[in-house]
Design a protein that fits this description.
Elements: E1 2-10, E2 19-24, H1 32-42, E3 46-51, E4 60-65, E5 70-71, H2 75-88, E6 90-91, E7 94-95, E8 99-104, E9 107-116, E10 119-126, E11 132-136, H3 139-146, E12 153-154, E13 161-164, E14 168-174, H4 177-181, H5 187-193, E15 201-207, E16 212-220, E17 224-227, H6 231-244, E18 250-258, E19 266-275, E20 278-297
Parallel strand pairs: 2-3, 4-8, 14-15, 16-18
Antiparallel strand pairs: 1-2, 1-20, 3-4, 4-5, 6-7, 8-9, 9-10, 10-20, 11-13, 12-14, 13-14, 15-16, 16-17, 18-19, 19-20
Helix pairs in contact: 3-5
């Protein structure tokens, strides 16, 4: 069977930047094993498969696969899939409007289409789950995993900690962008110290101006690899920082650069609302650009 696919670069306005995503549009009839094989063939950080929703009020059921496993939720796959569907203009015979809701293993994921001059240019998702905070991770373990001196792990704001809004990540602040640049992750250290709370995904970040951060994200699959843009991790980070900010109420915006050191610069934009001392809404989004389209014989 011929199945349509589209690829897009996510969290960038420049082709061949950001994080590439493959979207398989005619996924009906594929089982999990078939989806996994296709994701392995693309070998992107994620590939999505668009299926009819269980609830007709929703746009689609979206399944997300890395080359080695299925994920319950991830950021750039939702942003990129929504953008692709908005460019096509319809999904399962219905027009794509300003907002979509995807059914995923982690729950319902609302996604808002961003347009300029009437044309889709990106999307912004709302996290499907509240912020969850798990175990603290010893700074020495984080330093060894990242290949940097211990004194470049910053613990004044928070200890390195597992947190997530649908998928868990270890979040750790480091001293500077120079620290980010000199990181040399150690596969032996990842194997020694991780996983913690089931995750071997480590996001390191540092302030990079007013309401701006720069980050790098590494994960073990089993070798250590780097992700150029990680929406779910940065959504969790934005929620964590808003939770730690003083005051009961507030609206927080952050711009997060990622992928700089890889030569795939990305820009993610987060919005967090806090009410009564608790985060009540976490959104993250960015621009996308189309790259390729074609047919899969599967």
């Amino acid at each position: 069977m011929k199945r349509r696919y589209v690829t897009t670069d996510v969290f960038t306005d420049t082709k061949f930047g950001g994080n590439p995503l493959a979207v398989v549009l005619d996924a009906e009839g594929l089982d999990s094993a078939g989806m996994q094989i296709i994701a392995r063939e693309f070998n992107y950080s994620e590939t999505t498969f668009v299926l009819p929703p269980a609830d007709p009020a929703h746009a689609a059921h979206v399944r997300i696969f890395t080359p080695v496993e299925e994920l319950p939720f991830a950021g750039h796959p939702n942003v990129g899939t929504a953008y692709v569907l908005a460019r096509i203009g319809s999904v399962f015979g219905r027009p794509v409007g300003a907002e979509l809701v995807f059914e995923e293993a982690a729950g319902k994921v609302p996604v808002r289409i961003e347009r300029r001059d009437g044309e889709p240019v990106g999307a912004e998702l709302t996290a499907p789950q509240d912020l969850s905070v798990g175990s603290m991770v010893p700074p020495v373990a984080v330093a060894e995993c990242l290949g940097v001196p211990l004194d470049e792990i910053v613990i004044t704001g928070h200890m390195p900690v597992v947190a997530g809004v649908g998928t868990g990540f270890i979040l750790a602040e480091v001293h500077s962008t120079a620290t980010l640049a000199k990181m040399r992750p150690s596969a032996a250290a990842f194997a020694k110290h991780l996983p913690v709370d089931g995750t071997s995904k480590l996001l390191a970040y540092t302030p990079a101006g007013a309401d701006a951060l720069q980050a790098r994200m590494f994960f073990a699959v089993p070798d250590v690899r780097e992700d150029p843009a990680t929406g779910s991790a940065n959504a969790a980070l934005a929620a964590l920082l808003a939770t730690l900010a003083p005051g009961q109420d507030g609206k927080f915006r952050l711009s997060i650069a990622q992928g700089v050191e890889m030569g795939r610069p990305s820009l993610l934009r987060s919005r967090v609302e806090k009410f009564g001392g608790s985060v009540v809404s976490v959104r993250i989004g960015g621009d996308c650009v189309p790259v390729m389209e074609g047919l899969i014989d599967a």
